[in-house]
Design brief:
Blueprint: H1 15-22, H2 35-50, H3 52-62, H4 74-101, E1 102-105, E2 108-111, H5 122-147, E3 174-176, E4 179-181
Antiparallel strand pairs: 1-2, 3-4
């Protein structure tokens, strides 16, 4: 029997969520954003912390085609709306920033430019990318602290914090007979 394909379900945020919450110019058309960029951000920055199964089940329950009664519960909705979405929109922005600055054409990689603005230099771009990533990490750590709060024990049965690949701070951790080895 094959493993469940969690990629078939809707992403945890939409392009509209990303534009409305992570970009300073809300009239951004979103042409460069697509579901694959959002999926890459989910897999790269959230899946390892939430755990494969919990991440997949959240996608399945959040899917627009979820059957009646199989959607997100009250606490899962709180997790998604108050913690995952605010964090994930900044990770998506982080993943797409290079594509906003540069374009791959038949002539090679070129800088996007228009008559109304000038592209930033590499040091300014680096500052923006670092700040965007810092914001996303702050929100991710807050999400993980909330998930791991003792008052949430048993609230999310699919979440297995002690079996995830990464520690709260993102360091590699291996659990050896109850001892955390870094």
């Amino acid at each position: 029997m094959a493993a469940t394909d969690y990629r078939q379900y809707d992403n945890l945020v939409t392009v509209g969520d990303v534009i409305a919450n992570a970009f300073t110019h809300s009239s951004h058309g979103g042409e460069i954003l697509d579901n694959n960029i959002i999926l890459i951000a989910e897999i790269t920055h959230l899946k390892q912390h939430l755990g494969d199964y919990f991440w997949g089940e959240l996608r399945k329950k959040n899917d627009s085609n979820a059957a009646e009664g199989e959607g997100l519960g009250t606490y899962e909705t709180i997790l998604l709306e108050n913690y995952i979405k605010p964090c994930l929109v900044y990770f998506v922005k982080y993943e797409v920033l290079n594509d906003l600055q540069y374009n791959t054409t038949g002539s090679g990689v070129v800088t996007n430019d228009d008559e109304w603005s000038d592209p930033v230099d590499s040091s300014e771009m680096s500052i923006l990318k670092n700040d965007t990533y810092r914001k996303a990490e702050i929100l991710r750590k807050d999400m993980m602290e909330w998930l791991d709060d003792s008052e949430n024990n048993g609230v999310f049965p699919e979440y297995e914090s002690n079996l995830n690949d990464r520690h709260l701070n993102g360091d590699n951790v291996v659990k050896l007979g109850g001892i955390l080895a870094y």
